[in-house]
Amino acid sequence: MAEDTRERILSACERVIARSGLRGFRMQEVAREAGVSIGLLAYHFGDRDGLLEAALDHVNESAAIRAETPGEQPAPARLIALLTSEFGDDAGIRDGSVAWNELRASAVFDAGQARAVARSTADWQQRVVELVRESLGPQGADPEPIALLLTALVEGLSGRWLTGQITAAQAQDAMRDAAARVGIRAS
Amino acid sequence: MAEDTRERILSACERVIARSGLRGFRMQEVAREAGVSIGLLAYHFGDRDGLLEAALDHVNESAAIRAETPGEQPAPARLIALLTSEFGDDAGIRDGSVAWNELRASAVFDAGQARAVARSTADWQQRVVELVRESLGPQGADPEPIALLLTALVEGLSGRWLTGQITAAQAQDAMRDAAARVGIRAS
To answer: What is the tens place of the pLDDT at every residue in A67-112?
Structure first.
């Protein structure tokens, strides 16, 4: 499948979830939203669970792509860009965040989905572990608990943001504040 | 309504949500689970939204009650007890956490529920603000961003815990670690 078709389908999947949640989620609606056949969707992603797992990874990948900056930035700036790229007023960012929240919430009741969420979360957290290690240097603190703190905080703040308790900018400020408290500053 | 009836209904409500989520949630099932009439339920909590809002407050109150210790402890110990009391292997703690997670997830799609979640979250966060202020003293750092960080982290870690990515004990350790990083230690 061409990369742009894959991208189109996964963005469509996030929009469908963001519109009405996982309740009554149907692959047919994703196919319609993406303008592809249900056969193509099934051929490439398999079943509903395969599509939803790919959507989780897509949310992570999209945040990583948004965080990319021209030229090579120092590790602390890259880490903060990655963490703050999870929030924003752009519809695509919000759709991805809602989809992630929905999938995690439903994973509490679905062991298969819980495995997918755990795997995708671990990938994301590992990326953060490496950036924390690079930011703090070889003599720095253990990056694992710091990465857990920062990634779990992104998830907690996203719930506040998506329910209108804080703005995207406030969530980003809170992430910069948390990073500074563990000794990571962009400049 | 006697306090124990209210307590019984709200615990039953959390069990019902923890069993099968908010999807298909019905007051009738809560009445049956609590062993009361649907009329009594409706009389005291009003409609579905009234019951769910009371359940949110009940989750917070239950955590505060669990955190109470005999004798007067210093503020840092009380704060850490409150934050870590959100996690535990006891069925009641897990039920309350699942209910909170479900209500927050569905609040993304429901403005009325979002208001209830925002109000209940603000009450809880204010309690944390006061304990942070007392812990850090009058010359200490601004307690507001610290309380946002700590409470949002509880919510993020609860998602990890409820999907089996970390244990309740690991979530509690992560909260103690986060509190220590903002200068709050139990002893």
So the answer is: 987 778 999 999 999 999 999 999 999 999 999 999 999 999 999 9
A165 touches chain B (CB under 8 A): yes
**Whole-number Å distance between alpha carbons of A55 and A44:** 13
Contacts with A107 from chain B: Cβ below 8 Å: 163
Radius of gyration of chain A from its Cα atoms, rounded to whole angstroms? 17
Let me know the angle formed at the C-alpha of B172 by B168 and B178, rounded to the nearest 5 degrees. 145
Residue B146 in contact with residue B132, Cβ under 8 Å? Answer: yes
Residue with tokens 């695509």: A92
DSSP 8-state class, residue B186 = -
Q: Of B152, B159, B45, B153, which Cα lies nearest the Cα of B97? A: B159
- The gap between the terminal CA atoms of chain B, to the nearest Å, is 41
In a structure prediction context, what are the per-residue pLDDT tens digits for chain B, which is 187 residues long?
577 899 999 999 999 999 989 988 999 999 999 999 999 999 989 999 999 999 999 999 999 999 987 778 999 999 999 999 999 999 999 999 999 999 999 999 999 999 999 999 999 999 999 999 999 998 999 999 999 999 999 999 999 999 999 999 999 999 999 999 999 998 7
CA dist A109 and A117 (Å) reads 12
To the question of pTM greater than 0.90 for the whole model, the response is yes
Report helix, strand or coil for B5. Answer: helix
Pair B181, B187: CB distance under 8 Å: no
Query: B122: which 2 tokens?
Result: 């603000």
**CA angle (A43, A48, A53) in 5-degree steps:** 95
**Beta-carbon contacts of residue B165 (< 8 Å; ≥ 6 apart):** A117, A118, A121, A122
Nearest to A152 among B21, B102, B157 (CB): B157
A66 touches A117 (CB < 8 A): no
B85: tokens are: 């009391």
Given a contact cutoff of 8 angstroms between Cβ atoms, the answer to whether A135 and A76 are in contact is yes
φ/ψ of residue A153, rounded to 5: -65, -40
Q: Which residues of chain B make contact with A106, given a CB cutoff of 8 A?
A: 21
